[in-house]
Amino acid sequence: MESRYGKVVLVTGASSGIGKAIAERLANEGFRVYGTSRKAEGEEVIIEETASGGFFKLINLDVRSNESAQKAAAYVTEKEGSIDILINNAGFGISGPIEETTPEEAISQFDTNFFGMHRMVRSVLPGMRERGKGLIINISSVAGLFALPYQAFYCASKYAVEAFSEALRMEVKDFGIKVSLIEPGDTKTGFTQNRYFCEGSKHSAYKRSQMSVEKMMRDEQNGPGPEIIANVVVRILKRKNPPVRVIAGFSYKLLVFLKRLLPSRLVVFLVSKIY
Fold first, then answer.
1. How far apart are CA 63 and CA 37, in angstroms?
2. How many angstroms separate the CA atoms of 252 and 209, rounded?
């Protein structure tokens, strides 16, 4: 597949789920993909170089570390000469009532989901500015548009990703760099099993919290696979001017449309009834 942005892609959180699906799809489309994982040792080849020149290699990166972010970006740039496309996907979810979530737990949520993205953006922007082109795709969530009970800090981190991405898009426009958001809904991945439950929730005073989170987990496991997000990425890469945001799934687009029409009090009431 031809891309106006270039062929070298860095995808964070690519060892499983959405990140892996994106990396595999782009490698098969001819992109030279470096995925990242905290568990990778050295350079692990996941997909050998194809006839079209694409491949998928896994390298070590911890987005919670400034040094690790800079080191990974420098490694890819040294190997390929540039990083043309950055896809910020690394993230996880914390569940539990706000009252029972410690500041340390809340900070850990933001350190990965928000500041990890910030670290990666800072590591690639100098090169993109110098070349006068580049594309940054930040994986957000419909939870960045709808707040959910007992998911407050996950939602807050994704709301922050939304604001960050909109501001970044305006700031880097003059350098020929594009920024876009993808907002997945419930998606069947290992995200569900890897959800972190705050320590205080183990003996929670909030009796509805367990039932609420269990419903969310069922919805995730009944959702479409991560390939749907990889398809959205491919569509964005074909666009000269990528949209500010893409909501993955018609039903979620409908929900967002209704949120814009309905009074906020009614929206909060309806969400509270569902969860």
1. 9
2. 23
- Output the six-digit token pair for 34: 């470096």
Question: CATH number of 8-274: 3.40.640.10, 3.40.50.720, 3.30.43.10, 3.40.50.1980?
Answer: 3.40.50.720
Q: Annotated catalytic, 5?
A: no
Residue 202 known to be catalytic: no
Q: Per-residue pLDDT for 253 more than 80?
A: no
Catalytically annotated residue among 3, 15, 141, 180: 15
Catalytic residue status for 3: no
Q: Quick: pLDDT tens for 113-147.
A: 999 999 999 999 999 999 999 999 999 999 999 89
Check if 206 is active-site: no
| Tens-place pLDDT, residues 46-105 | 999 998 899 999 999 999 999 999 999 999 999 999 999 999 999 999 999 999 999 999
For 188-221, the DSSP string reads: -STTTTTPEEPGGGGG-S-THHHHHHHHHHHHHH
Task: List the catalytic residue out of 34, 154, 159, 252.
Answer: 154
